[in-house]
Amino acid sequence: MSHNLLQGKKGIIFGALNDQSIAWKVAQQCFAQGAEIVLTNAPIALRMGEINKLSQECNNAPVIPADVTSNDELKNLLEKSMEHFGGKIDFILHSVGMSINMRKNNPYTALNHEFTHKSLDISAMSLHRLLQLAYNMDAIKDWGSVVALTYIAAQRVFPDYSEMADAKALLENISRSFGYHYGIRNKVRVNTVSQSPTRTTAGSGVKGFDGFINFAEKMSPLGNANAEDCANYCVTLFSDLTKYVTMQNLFHDGGFSFTGVTKEIIEQMEK
Fold it and tell me: Is the confidence at residue 34, as pLDDT, over 70?
């Protein structure tokens, strides 16, 4: 159902890979709520071609490639987006993450640190790079909104989440720190959304994911939040209904983050 929460707003969506992506669902919901969007992903991801389907669905939204480790490419993305919109940007979704060590099955106790530097650069420093460029270019409208997707492994140990836990912790701190500076100058709010484990292409690659997603379901009073509901939540954060929410890490996880144990888990352990 559309309530036109984003009517007249313009935003950039990072990270839509395929229809399993949270970013894909966010793009669909933003468009359904009246927004005009630009889609972006790494050039290698765009070569898969699926994002073109999303572009067509969203009134032929421009697809602009951008390597998030490149200042020049991010600057080009911001410039071309503002040119397309005819002005500044209202909102940005940062849905970017990649761990080379996890792909190589390197455990946390045996990381290749060159890979780790790359993972931190892509998954966390990219947010700082993007915000710094947008800040210096004055690219985001006053009272605009930036949301980055994160995970509770930034606060708790999930052994197989490996270096991505470090990346998410850095991502969340960048959100708070830049949220302060951007808020002071332009009232731009910056938040992270800590989502339930979600069956995306990236998430499904984590070792033991199936077992963990079932565990999280049993540990969450409301159950796991799916990608569509995460998209709905992001829409509210892009809207004017949340103008005074900033520098927050917002859990969207059915209550998992504040549940010590559930009766269902106790009963299972006592069998």
Answer: yes
